[in-house]
UniProtKB/TrEMBL annotation:
<dbReference type="GO" id="GO:0005737">
    <property type="term" value="C:cytoplasm"/>
</dbReference>
<feature type="compositionally biased region" description="Basic and acidic residues">
    <location>
        <begin position="42"/>
        <end position="53"/>
    </location>
</feature>
<dbReference type="InterPro" id="IPR050275">
    <property type="entry name" value="PGM_Phosphatase"/>
</dbReference>
<feature type="region of interest" description="Disordered">
    <location>
        <begin position="1"/>
        <end position="53"/>
    </location>
</feature>
<dbReference type="GO" id="GO:0016791">
    <property type="term" value="F:phosphatase activity"/>
</dbReference>
<dbReference type="InterPro" id="IPR029033">
    <property type="entry name" value="His_PPase_superfam"/>
</dbReference>
<dbReference type="InterPro" id="IPR013078">
    <property type="entry name" value="His_Pase_superF_clade-1"/>
</dbReference>
<protein>
    <submittedName>
        <fullName>Histidine phosphatase family protein</fullName>
    </submittedName>
</protein>
<dbReference type="Pfam" id="PF00300">
    <property type="entry name" value="His_Phos_1"/>
</dbReference>
Length: 276
């Protein structure tokens, strides 16, 4: 049986990209991945990071959905990360996404940021009986000195690169900034919150780097991050790209393990694919 959010694949679908430690395979029609966990001693421990959907108890399913195309994504200057809105094309992407969901999710989650709420709006309108909650699934905001003055992604890039070169997991760049350690702690907290939900599936409208942080939290040991791990995470985010409105299908088994299907955008016509 096709799931409520498993549209037929088309040539418009962006090919899924996997981080080098993900080893694709398949079982019972479901993509499975072996995850290599790297311990703090440098030892690699390969483990299968999936179970067939009918095995185990306490499974929970969530769709992690990147927001639709925003004005910042197309190079417009912005000053408040929370207030960035969608483009007209982004609004069209959100409509196509909502139309692809054939049955109501148990819960619709957004961040407090405008672009996730605008992306979720057509889905909320399609399923008015589905509850909506705000969770701490917002963007990783680590350069607050730029807030309050207009700047583009290109203008911010040198400061972004310097932040990641520094590779200090506990560094905060002023009031209102989040550290890399804080980002991962937030990702672990959201995973635990998903696991505690009574019903599934949950549709989580969030941001690309936060989805990547959730996946990283699943693939690594839950200990304070180091500088080398921060550099590895940066490499991961650059290798595993998520187009706008990409859907990562996350399934947790209740024992700290789970499976993922990443980056589906079959709901978008080829002319609406952005952010890849």
């Amino acid at each position: 049986m096709r799931s409520p959010m498993s549209p037929v694949r088309s040539s418009a679908e962006h090919p899924t990209k996997h981080y080098q430690t993900l080893k694709p395979g398949s079982a019972r029609g479901e993509h499975r991945h072996a995850i290599s966990r790297v311990s703090r001693t440098g030892r690699r421990e390969d483990r299968v990071f999936a179970r067939p959907p009918d095995e185990g108890m306490g499974r929970m399913r969530a769709w992690l959905i990147r927001h639709a195309e925003s004005v910042a994504n197309v190079g417009e200057a912005t000053e408040d990360p929370a207030a960035i809105s969608l483009t007209d094309r982004g609004r069209a992407q959100a409509v196509h996404l909502a139309a692809s969901i054939s049955a109501p999710p148990a819960l619709i989650v957004t961040s407090a940021y405008a672009r996730t709420k605008q992306t979720a709006q057509p889905t909320l309108e399609r399923f008015p009986g589905t509850p909506h909650e705000e969770w701490p699934v917002h963007e990783f905001t680590y350069l607050p000195t730029l807030h309050g003055r207009l700047s583009t992604v290109a203008e911010r890039r040198p400061m972004v690169e310097e932040y990641w070169r520094r590779a200090d997991p506990r560094h905060t760049d002023g009031a209102g900034a989040e550290s890399f350690a804080g980002l991962l702690a937030r990702a672990h907290g959201v995973l635990e919150r998903i696991q505690r939900c009574a019903d599934e599936p949950i549709a989580v409208f969030t941001h690309g780097i936060f989805i990547q942080a959730v996946l990283w939290a699943l693939m690594t040991e839950p200990v304070p991050p180091t500088g080398p791990e921060m550099r590895l995470f940066r490499a991961f985010t650059q290798a595993f790209r998520l187009p706008n409105t990409a859907v990562v299908d996350l399934r947790l088994d209740g024992n700290g393990r789970g499976s993922i299907q990443g980056g589906r955008i079959a709901h978008l016509p080829s002319g609406l694919v952005t952010g890849d």
